[in-house]
Amino acid sequence: MKHIARKRFGQNFLHDASAIASIVDAIAPKPGDALVEIGPGLGALTRPLCERLGRMTVVEIDRDLAARLRNDPQLRVIESDVLRVDFAQLHEDMEASNGLRIVGNLPYNVSTPILFHLLTFAPCVRDQHFMLQKEVVQRMVAPAGSSEFSRLSVMLQWRYAMESVLDVGPECFDPAPKVNSAVVRMTPLTAVPDVNPKRLSDVVQVAFSQRRKLMRNTLGPWLDQEGFSGAFDLQRRAQEVEVAEYVELALQLDNTAELRRL
């Protein structure tokens, strides 16, 4: 029985053989890898990945698709919303000494929440390969100073090395989306500042709240409220500030908050 794509799950099923082969080659799975696929759907990527791996884990929210996937003895199927999955526990369960490798064709309507959820588990991950809306990937990898540089850019780049590796056209899916897609590679950085992610998120969210304005009008008043007395050039727009500067500002705010508690 043919599975009808469900809009509420953002389902667009990959079917183009050439695109599938290119994505699998970009992932380069090897036997023994602890690989987890998010949203395997009809298994277009799952099958060729399994051919190279022998066994893998998949996370599928659609109960009908999960039931189909359970027929494959090579798959461990987790029927769940990925936002509820504890990847640290999964890392332990899979005995992933070299880290989890996470892949997936992410539903465009919830891709950002998924990326932020996974950010929490970066220490457990070796790498991630995701297909997303091309416009989102462009924001993820954008350098400071570019028009695409955004809150998403900062929050991901402080923790990962980012690379756009492959473009995928709408014709490669069924049903065909109205946007172009791209595959991004995300590799957790080995040395990262011990910054409070919530503090960094607050800083970046305020800075980008009115991205056309100079930060003296947005971030400036907020820093005053936080009791910040350090140096930070507010005569710039948010997209002109390097990731490292945002991280340093968040660290300084953490120090300020600590001193106020003493």
Record keyword descriptors for this entry.
2 domains, 262 residues, Helicase, Ruva Protein, domain 3, seven-stranded mixed beta sheet, alpha/beta, disordered N terminus, Rossmann fold, elongated
A few lines on this structure:
By secondary structure, the chain is an alpha/beta fold. The protein has helices spanning 17-27, 46-53, 63-69, 87-93, 111-119, 134-141, 151-157, 197-207, 219-225, 243-261; strands spanning 13-14, 34-38, 56-60, 75-79, 100-105, 125-133, 160-168, 173-174, 181-188. It contains 10 helices and 9 strands.
Estimated helix fraction:
25-40%
**What's the CATH architecture of the largest domain?**
3-Layer(aba) Sandwich
Indicate the CATH topology of the largest domain: Rossmann fold
Strand content: 15-25%
Tell me the distance between the termini.
66 Å
Note the total helix count.
10
Category from helices, strands and their pairing:
alpha/beta
CATH class placement of the largest domain: Alpha Beta
Q: Which regions have little confidence, pLDDT < 50, spanning 5+ residues?
A: 1-10
Largest pleated sheet: 7 strands, mixed
Domain module count:
2
Number of strands: 9
Name the average pLDDT.
91
Tell me, briefly, the overall form: elongated
Query: Element order, helices and strands?
Result: EHEHEHEHEHEHHEEEHHH
Strand order across the largest sheet: 4-3-2-5-6-9-7
CATH homologous superfamily title of the largest domain: Vaccinia Virus protein VP39
Q: Report the radius of gyration as a whole number of Å.
A: 20 Å
